[in-house]
Every structure is written in C-alpha cells, then in structure tokens.
Design goal:
- With about 290 residues, this protein is mainly beta.
- It has no helices and 22 strands.
- It folds into two domains: about 110 residues, no CATH class; about 160 residues, Methylamine Dehydrogenase, Chain H.
- The strands form six sheets. A four-stranded antiparallel sheet has the order 4-5-6-7, with no helix packed on it. A four-stranded antiparallel sheet has the order 8-9-10-11, with no helix packed on it.
- It is globular and about 55 Å long.
- The protein starts with a strand and ends in an 8-residue tail after the last strand.
C-alpha cells in the first residue's frame, strides 16, 4: 500500500487486485484493476513483494537475491521478468517507485539500483546507481526509503541504512547518479538493538509531517515486541540534521511480537498488530512534535 493505492492478493487464487484509496474519515476503496499471475501461479507462491510503478509487483527471493517483476498486461493477464543481484543472499531490501535498495550476505555494501523495464524485449535490467560505504563489512539489518510526494507536500528523498551495530544512517538520494555517492545527512544510534533475530527481523517505518521544504522526518524501529521512535531536529536545508529519540513503546502486543505496524496522521500516532492475533489492532498516541515521552 502507498498513499493512494492498496494492492492485495486473493488468498488461494492467482489474482492480485488494485484499489484506489480516498477520504480521511470515511475511507473509500475503488477497484482500479486486477491481474492474474502467469502460469496459474498462486498468490501464496510469490515471495515477499512490493508495489513497483503503476501496474507492477516486485518480489525478491532472499536466498539468491533474484528479482522478479510481474507486470500487468492486456486482458487482466501478466508477464514476469527476472534479473539478479550478485551479492549472495538478500539480507535486507526496500523498494520505492523504480528504485530498489539491497544489502547482501557476500558483498555487504548497500546497493541502490534502478529497475529498468525494456520496451523492445520486455525484459528488466538492474541499473546500478550507487554503492554506499560499509568499510567494516557489517550486516545490513534494514533499509527504507522516504519518497517525494508521499505525503503530497514532501519534497525530500532519503534512503535509510541500518547496520547490525545499531547505527542508522540517512542518505540524501534526491539526485543520485553513478558518478557520486549519496550524501549522508543524519545518523542515529539505537542502543537497545541486540542484533539480528530470525524470528523478529528489524523493520523501519517512516513518516513526514510539516510542509513543503520544511519537512520533519520521523522513524520508528520495530524490534520484536518493542518500538522506538526518532524525530528530526534541525532543518535539512542547511545540510545535516539530528535524529532525536522521542518515544519507547515496550511489549506493545503484551507478550507477542509486532507483525505489522504503521504510522498514523503523519507520525503523530502508531498502529500495531501481532502474530498471535492479527485481527486486533492497537493504536498509540505518540509525543507531540518537539517533545519526548
């Protein structure tokens, strides 16, 4: 899901459905399109996936770092094309528009690439954009993007890299090119991070509030049953800014790990659900901007 669309797979079928989302207090869903997976594949057979562009899905096989793009064709059908990152296994990845960030098990420097769909052959190519520094060859625990236009007033474009030593770095990727490395504009250290857990991998949430050219970034780190929230301090126009820890939520699911979470109202609230009972959603009010819990 993004700010305006919701894409869902119909369980036990071969069909994905896309809806537009409108309204704030009374939310309306309008179906935009549906597509069937190629070769009658079931939705459950698609690895972890994300929305790509207007009418495509992107999935990655973590073990091989193979990228598959499934694109909607005429008559509600679809075609699939593949390419591969040659970095070992995919330990962490994130997708935003046509960009994909990935950290591998063999080549551990985080990579930023663009997914190029070729009109002549219909195939895809992973076009390198930047390789970010990781001199200590630490494991990339999580990656995330902040995209312009999400929400509508946001003009910032960031890529967030979080390593196994508990250090997060925020890079400006507004105008990335193959000739330079994106500039690091902020960093933060999460002292509670105890390393990678297979049963509860770290997840990063992002939210932006404020107004155009005066945006304030919020980041939430999901660590098993706990959530930590950071907020931007200082203006991005001057280059670097700080991320200040503003809230800690412990054992939010009362004994269960957090499975899904989302910011509410541009980071003023948080909603979570757990593994044991995904039907019940808990909602939390976060500290007001500029204040810590």
């Amino acid at each position: 899901m993004d700010d305006t669309r919701l894409i869902a797979g119909e369980r036990f079928t071969d069909t994905f459905v896309c809806f537009s989302v409108s309204g704030r207090t009374n939310v309306n869903l309008t179906q935009l399109w549906s597509m069937k997976l190629p070769d009658h594949r079931l939705v459950s057979s698609v690895p972890r996936w994300s929305v790509l562009g207007q009418d495509s899905l992107l999935s990655i096989v973590d073990q091989t770092a193979e990228v598959e793009v499934i694109t909607r064709s005429a008559a509600k059908t679809s075609t699939a094309h593949k390419d591969k990152f040659k970095v070992g296994s995919a330990l962490a990845w994130a997708v935003c528009d046509d960009r994909i960030a990935l950290g591998g098990s063999f080549l551990r420097e985080p990579r930023l690439s663009r997914v190029v769909q070729r009109a002549d052959s219909g195939s895809i190519t992973l076009e390198p954009v930047a390789v970010l520094p990781n001199a200590a060859k630490l494991r990339v625990s999580a990656l995330a993007f902040v995209a312009p236009g999400a929400p509508a007033f946001n003009t910032r474009s960031y890529m967030i890299v979080f390593l196994e030593n508990g250090i997060g770095t925020i890079y400006d990727v507004q105008t990335p090119s193959t000739q330079n490395t994106p500039q690091a504009v902020s960093g933060f250290a999460d002292t509670d991070y105890a390393g990678h857990r297979v049963d509860a991998p770290l997840c990063i949430l992002t939210a932006v509030r404020g107004q155009a050219y005066h945006e304030v970034l919020r980041i939430a780190l999901l660590r098993g049953p706990n959530v930590t929230v950071y907020e931007q301090s200082g203006k991005a126009d001057g280059g670097n800014f700080q991320m200040v820890r503003v809230a800690d939520l412990y054992d939010v699911q009362e004994g269960d790990a957090v499975k899904h979470a989302a910011f509410l109202q541009n980071g003023l609230g948080l909603a979570t659900s757990g593994h044991a009972d995904g039907r019940h959603v808990r909602m939390f009010t976060l500290p007001s901007p500029g204040k810590a819990a």
